[in-house]
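Q: What would this complex look like in 3D?
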Amino acid sequence: MTLLIADKLPVITGDKLICDSLSLELEPGDRIGIIGPNGCGKTSVLHTLAGFRKISSGTLTILGSNISKLSRKVIATKLGILQQNLNINFNPTVLEFCAQGRFAHQSNFKFAATAIQEFLPVLELVELDNHIQQKLMSLSGGELKRLQIAQLLIQNPSIYLLDEPTNHLDLRWQSKLLNYFLELSLYGAGFIIAIHDLNLLMRYCNKTVMLLPNEVIQGNTTEVLTSENLSRLYGHRLSLKLQPIWYPEI
Amino acid sequence: MIPIRNLFLIVLCILALISLGLSLSLGSVFISPSDSFMALHGQKESALYQILLEIRLPRVLCAFITGGLLALAGVLMQALLKNPLADPSILGVSGGAGFGALLWMFIGGSMLGLTTAASIGSLLAFSLVIIFSRVRGSTSSHSMLLAGVALSSFFAALMSLILILSPDMQLKSMLFWLMGDLSSAHMPIFESLILLIGIAYSFVFAEHLNIFASGEEYALGLGVNTKRLRLQIYILSSLLTATAVTLGGCIGFIGLIIPHLFRFVCTYDHRYLIPGSVLLGGIVLTIADTVARCIIPSQELPVGMLTALIGIPVFIFFLRKQTL
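A: Here is my prediction, written as structure tokens for the whole assembly.
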């Protein structure tokens, strides 16, 4: 089953129209990269696809159901989003933060059980298993990003919307976590990733959406990522040189 | 081993009992615990029995319940606006409730309808805050606070107008009530019920509030229906404020300071913040009311004046500690 279908969706941020009709399909195993210069509306596209914005025209379907017919809790069991920034007003521990990832899977009357055993494999993956009682505000930027990713994995959706997932991460973590996502996609998960690093895009995303002013170019990454398109996208003459690059494996 | 947060709640429960006991004993006549015990088992016509059960007990309970109601309303409003300055009096909700109640008194309505009039006033005030703070389709907590401050002044002006137009007979009781007054207390059975419902209802949403505290989009992503949550907090906090205002008048700073105090010494987690703030609010207002009626012999001070006198230095302390 197609994981996500956006059909002629307008993307608006504030008063600004990013795109009047966005259509895309996310199949199981797809990793769609969204690229564009700062402020072009990548986050707005992700928020629209997550159903955060009111849909005035067009349709958005996730796993066969129209998103407007689903409750937020049901949506969160199918679709998870990694936010670019995290606003920490409430300063929970690493374990409490992870437990919030299970929120959609629990009833209102049952409080999030902070079952360490349940979260330990994911915390081991992001190497935060020795920090479970540490407060969020005491974590570094990279640790916080890894923890956000751990929470998303605990949420366990089929559709992952990742807003600049490699921010704050060093080369080893960029590679390790994107390889893990690649592995998840082989099991049928789908990813839509807002990203700036074209090397990572080329390596990890099989499809690409380019957000140009008043135009959206999309298709297979190898077809879309051309010198001409990139020059138009960034407003500078750019030439693309493809050569093998080395990334550490996990 | 009991977790420190649970231990803190247990300590607050013990402190609540101590403050209630002390408040029952202290006053124009000192009644020791043994005398209280004797009086309760003695004749109903005795002076001690009457002072204890018919004058002090309703008043002490009123103070505790009012403190709890205001603190809970403060917790909910601060969660709703994600702003530490949110409080029923600053947002104009207390002003709305006060205006509703004062207007009801002015037109000679019965005491039974007072809570309804105050509730309508507080809901009206909160609705106006939301409508006025909506700029280009979205509402920010800053614009809500500004709209709240403006509406607070507006309702204060309307209340002044009612006071000017009121006959002298009503004026003194109205003024005293406006400054926060618990002297005409009754047994707060209905109000206790509202507080219990408020605690139970908000406790169910404690986890939602924890998630909501980290941002609207973060909460949506994890499955919180933020639109519904906002509406629920909005109605519940208005109802709590209206009940508190009807019971004890316009008492400021409890809703603002108490949640901060609990966060400062214990935790931000709403699962503990909700019961903890209710207990702490109750304790603080019970003590403040006891001081208000004991500090000057044969004269009572309005408790709202005392909470403001204590509240402002505490507020400035938190401001300087950068915990707001």
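A: To summarize the key features: The interface with chain B takes residues 14-15, 47, 50-52, 71-77, 80-81, 83, 86-92, 96, 100-101, 103-104, 108-109, 111-112, 155 of chain A (CB under 8 Å). The first strand of chain A starts at residue 4 and ends at 13.
Q: Very helpful, thank you.
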